[in-house]
UniProtKB/TrEMBL annotation:
Enzyme Commission identifier(s): 2.6.1.9
Protein name: Aminotransferase class I and II (HisC)
Domain (Aminotransferase class I/classII large): residue spans on this chain: 4-268
Necessary cofactors: pyridoxal 5'-phosphate
Keyword Protein biosynthesis among record annotations: no
Similarity remark: Belongs to the class-II pyridoxal-phosphate-dependent aminotransferase family.
Keywords annotated in UniProt: Aminotransferase, Pyridoxal phosphate, Transferase
Group of enzyme by EC: transferase
GO MF annotation list: histidinol-phosphate transaminase activity; pyridoxal phosphate binding
Pfam family, one: Aminotran_1_2
């Protein structure tokens, strides 16, 4: 069953506000999607966080072990801001081993190679959240949706969100966008190719730690030169995200994969900067 919301932010927020309490322990990664973390803080919902490794990877066995003391799990898959994604098999192992609700946030899934959405039919505890804000470029429309078992979807749609969850314009635009999704799927492979190009070229500089990504952005540690890189790019009209310290990495920057022209401009600017 499908439920909808004014962006996936709202779906996550409503789930936290209505399905959790101050004693609901949520297992997640560190870092995880910032909004989710902030909303947990707002509602005083405790989180158990598993940090990313030096190479910005997670280990599923750590999650399976820690899930024994958790009431709920939230994972963004791919993760924002690292771009890391567990394999489908790993996630299936976790979902299978856990009794409570598990939210898999697939905001960036169109740029990845796998999804767990089809597992919703098999596992009653699985809630897969998606959005039209990323791959469809419709962030301003505020349209998110989730797939879950009928009981969860009914409670959400008929009680939590009752009576008018979305405006008609958003519903109609969303239907149109989803109907055209096969037309834009060639864009997803273009973005994956461009992502590979950015990762390879940044690695070639030998200056940064560049992490693998399954999303439409690439995270790298500029190793103390983050402010210099960030400011030099701004001067050339290139805006990337300055994230600073993430785990043991102190100077993290995140660049969104753009058009081939934008990406080349970014890579040239980096090359000039390092010369
Ligand atoms: C992992 C993740 N989930 C959800 C969202 C929210 O998307 P929406 O625009 O649908 O609220 C974002 C936006 O940055 C995100 O990174």
């Amino acid at each position: 069953m499908i439920g909808v919301g004014n962006g996936s932010d709202q779906i996550l927020d409503l789930m936290l506000a209505n399905l959790c309490s101050k004693t609901t322990k949520i297992l997640t990664s560190d870092p995880t999607f910032g909004f989710f973390e902030e909303r947990c803080k707002l509602y005083s919902i405790p989180t158990i966080k598993i940090p990313f490794s030096e190479k910005m990877q997670l280990n599923i066995d750590d999650f399976i072990k820690k899930s024994k003391i958790a009431d709920m799990i939230y994972l963004d898959s791919p993760n924002n801001p690292t771009g890391f994604q567990f394999t489908r098999n790993d996630l299936k192992k976790l979902i299978q081993s856990f009794k409570g609700p598990i939210i898999i946030d697939e905001a960036y899934v169109e740029f990845a190679d796998s999804s767990v959405v089809s597992l919703v039919k098999q596992f009653d505890n699985l809630i897969v959240v998606r959005t039209l804000s990323k791959a469809f470029g419709l962030a301003g429309l505020r349209l998110g949706y989730f797939a879950a078992n009928k009981k969860i979807a009914d409670v959400f749609s008929k009680i939590i969100q009752y009576p008018y969850p979305l405006n008609t314009l958003a519903i109609q635009c969303g239907i149109l966008a989803l109907e055209k999704s096969n037309k834009i799927s060639s864009m997803f492979s273009l973005i994956k190719n461009e992502r590979r190009k950015i990762i390879q070229n940044l690695r070639k500089t030998g200056t940064f730690d560049v992490f693998d990504s399954s999303a439409n952005f690439v995270l790298f540690d500029a190793k103390g030169a983050d402010s210099r890189v960030y400011n030099a790019l701004i001067e050339q009209g290139i805006s990337i995200r300055k994230l600073g310290k993430l785990g043991r990495h102190k100077g993290c920057l995140r660049v969104t994969v753009g058009t081939p022209e934008m990406n080349s401009k970014f890579l040239l600017a980096i090359r000039d900067l390092l010369e």
